[in-house]
Every structure is written in C-alpha cells, then in structure tokens.
Amino acid sequence: xxxxxxxxxxxxxxxxxxxxxxxxxxxxxxxxxxxxxxxxxxxxxxxxxxxxxxxxxxxxxxxxxxxxxxxxxxxxxxxxxxxxxxxxxxxxxxxxxxxxxxxxxxxxxxxxxxxxxxxxxxxxxxxxxxxxxxxxxxxxxxxxxxxxxxxxxxxxxxxxxxxxxxxxxxxxxxxxxxxxxxxxxxxxx
Length: 189
Hints:
Elements: H1 3-25, H2 38-41, H3 43-57, H4 62-75, H5 79-89, H6 105-110, H7 123-136, H8 145-154, H9 157-179
C-alpha cells in the first residue's frame, strides 16, 4: 500500500470519530455520542437515587464520605465524579487539620495510594477505604471477611450499613455518569 493510500485509509478510519467528536463538542461531551439525560428521562429513578444517597450519608463524617466517594470514583475511572468529590472535599469539615475548613490537598493527593501512606488517614478511614475498594471491585474477589471485620471494628452496625449504602450509591453514580457521558468539570447537580 502506498503512503497516499495509507493516509487515505487512516483518514477514513478516523472520520467516524471526528464526526462523533464534532457532534459532541456542541454539548460538551468529547469522544462519545449524545447520551440520555437520565434525570429528565427517568425522574422517579433519579429522585430515588438522590434519596438513597442522602440516607446513606446521614450521620457519617462528611470528610469520610468524600474520601469514600473519591476512592470509588478513582477505581471506576469516573472523571466527572472524581472532579465533583475532590471539589466537595475541599469544602467538607473533617476531624483532621485541613485547609480553610476543608480537606487538605495533601490528603486528597494520597487517597489513590492510601495503603502506602497510612499515616495520612485514621484507622477508621483506612477501614472505610479498604471496604470501598472491596465493594467497588467486588467482581475481582468479593468482599473478604478480613476487610469486612476491619470495618466492623470501627463502625457500629447502623454506621456500617450506611457506609455500605454510601459505597453502593457512589458506584451507581459513577456508572450513571460514565454511561451518560458526563464531562468532568461540569457539575450538573
């Protein structure tokens, strides 16, 4: 095949992607086709998810909530939710010293490597992060008894149930954002 033929084939192969990107640049979603607006198309389901999320958070430390949501979003590669929850964490009141009433940049940077930097997180936060990873990656080996028991030593039953519900909801939000092509930095709450 000549260089010109290779170039033409490459342009033809790329054309569908260019067209999809052009269509989506208008709505802000680069690289994916126009997607359903879930909140408008399924308002009852969306409101139910919001209610479930609110019930899950009730009584949990706001800083812990954000750490769990950040870790799950990292594991699920959900840029939309990761941006939202790191932004929210900077505003959340936690029990550790933080910048201007929110989560410290230092701890936010360490969430992805919390196991290698345990001194940045309390034992309770580490237990929650371990449970978050196990539940988020449940298809890779379930939720080991040791991980569950570790969390159970730091959370009473009602707290543990709400922590699990929080992990369920952030995984659902991640899947919703990824499936509907949400764009990081466009907080559409």
